[in-house]
Task: structure prediction
Amino acid sequence: MVNNPPHILLIEDNPNNIKLMVMLLEQQNYQVTVDTNAEAGIINAKKILPDLILLDIQLPEMDGMEACRIMRKDESLEFTPIIALTAFAMQGDKERILANGFDEYMSKPINYRDFLNLVNKILNHED
Result:
């Protein structure tokens, strides 16, 4: 039996952030799929059923909050862990984002150690 690496869907529109996160995740042997807008990300999420979704809050056309709400209504994605990636770092933002259906929150610019620790924690189902 082949043990496939965890599949992560990254929905992010900033090319520099994409490059950094894909490099970090692939170094950990994760399989990564990238979408640069929420609509494509939602379609891909339903198709590939990733182990984890990394979702930027500020995306063109549809923001990450709306995308998360849509994915949470889909039975196949209802329990898929979703981490919010956001430059929002004001008091109350984390609580508001988590109340919107996200499992975790990572502020940008990301600290690569914290980022990988959070991804590993969620994929390994650690509390």
